[in-house]
Design goal:
Radius of gyration: 29 Å
Shape: flat
Number of domains: 1
CATH architecture: Orthogonal Bundle
Helix content: over 70%
Structural class: mainly alpha
Distance between the termini: 77 Å
CATH superfamily: MetI-like
Largest sheet: none
C-alpha cells in the first residue's frame, strides 16, 4: 500500500515562471529590508549630535572630579561614584526647589488647560457678533514679543504686591494661553456641529455641551496642552529669575544657577549631576506622551 500510494503522488516541481516570480519577490524583500536598515542608520547618524551631549552629561555625573579633568577624556566612568549626585541633592534648599517647582508646574498645567479650553469653546462653537475680531486680538497677543510687555508687567506686579511671591509665575495661567487657545479652537472646529445641535435639542445648555460633548472628544488636544505647559513651566528660567527674589521660593532651574554661583566651575561633577536631575523628568514624560502630543498637534490642523 505504501508503494502504491507513493506511485500515485507526482513530485511537486515549480515551473520556470513560478521560480522567477519567487526570485523577484525575494529581491523585492531584500531591497525593502535594505531601505529600512539604511533609513534607520541615517536617523541614528542624525540623532548622534543630539544624543552625545546628553550621554556626556550622564556619564559625567558619575565620574570623580579627577577623572573629569583627564585628557584625553574617558567615555566610561571608572570607577562609578555617587558623590556628585549626593552633593547636588544635599545642597541647602534643594527640596524647597523641588517643592516649589512641583507646585508651580502643577498649578500652571491645571490652570492653563482649564482656562484655555473654556476660552477656546466660544471662539469655536458659539456664533456671536465680533467673535472673529476678538480672536484676532488673541492671535495678536500670541505674535507680540514678550519683551515688549516685560517692564509694564513687572511694575504691575510690584504695584499689587506680588513681587517675591509665587503669584507672578502661577496666577497668570488662570487667564489662558493664546497659543493653546488657538490650538484647542482648531481642534474643536473639527467636531461636527450635528453633535452640538442634537445635544441642544435634548435641552443641553452650552455649559453641558462643553462638558459632556466637547471635552471627551478633545482629550488629545488637552493632553498636548498639558504636556507643553509642563515642559515650558518646568524649564522656565527667565520668569522666576525676574519675579522671585526670595531663595525659599526658587525653582530647580534657579537652583542650578545658584549652585553654579556658589560652587563655581571647580565642582563640575556636582553641576553635571544637578543638571541631570533637572533634565530627566521632562525626558521621561516626553517618551511616554509623544504619541498623544503628535496626535493632538496634527488633528488640530484639519480645519481652519
Amino acid at each position: 500500500m505504501l508503494a502504491r500510494s507513493g506511485s500515485n503522488e507526482a513530485p511537486l516541481t515549480e515551473t520556470p515562471q513560478q521560480q522567477r516570480t519567487a526570485q523577484l519577490h525575494r529581491r523585492a524583500l531584500q531591497r525593502q529590508r535594505a531601505k529600512v536598515i539604511g533609513r534607520h542608520l541615517l536617523l541614528v547618524l542624525v540623532a548622534l549630535p543630539f544624543i552625545i551631549p546628553f550621554y556626556w552629561l550622564l556619564i559625567s555625573s558619575f565620574k570623580t572630579n579627577a577623572e573629569l579633568l583627564n585628557l584625553p577624556p574617558t567615555f566610561w566612568p571608572h570607577p562609578w561614584t555617587l558623590q556628585d549626585v549626593r552633593s547636588a541633592v544635599g545642597v541647602s534648599g534643594f527640596w524647597d526647589y523641588v517643592r516649589n517647582t512641583a507646585y508651580i508646574t502643577l498649578f500652571n498645567v491645571i490652570a492653563t488647560v482649564v482656562s484655555s479650553a473654556i476660552i477656546a469653546y466660544p471662539f469655536a462653537r458659539i456664533r456671536f457678533p465680533g467673535r472673529d475680531a476678538m480672536f484676532v486680538l488673541v492671535l495678536i497677543t500670541l505674535i507680540l514679543p514678550p519683551w515688549t510687555t516685560l517692564i509694564p508687567t513687572y511694575y504691575l506686579y510690584k504695584w499689587i504686591g506680588w513681587l517675591g511671591t509665587l503669584r507672578p509665575v502661577t496666577w497668570p495661567a488662570l487667564t489662558g494661553n493664546s497659543f493653546f487657545i488657538f490650538l484647542l479652537r482648531q481642534f474643536m472646529m473639527t467636531i461636527p456641529y450635528d453633535l452640538s445641535d442634537a445635544a441642544r435639542m435634548d435641552g443641553c445648555s452650552d455649559y453641558r455641551i462643553f462638558y459632556h460633548v466637547i471635552l471627551p472628544l478633545i482629550k488629545p488636544a488637552l493632553a498636548t496642552t498639558a504636556l507643553f505647559t509642563f515642559l515650558w513651566t518646568y524649564n522656565d528660567f527667565f520668569n522666576p529669575l525676574i519675579f522671585l527674589n526670595d531663595p525659599s521660593n526658587y525653582t530647580l532651574s534657579l537652583g542650578v544657577y545658584q549652585f553654579v554661583v556658589n560652587h563655581g566651575i571647580a565642582n563640575t561633577g556636582a553641576i553635571m549631576a544637578y543638571s541631570l536631575i533637572l533634565t530627566v523628568p521632562p525626558i521621561i514624560l516626553f517618551f511616554f506622551t509623544q504619541r498623544t502630543m503628535i496626535k493632538g498637534v496634527t488633528m488640530s490642523g484639519l480645519k481652519f
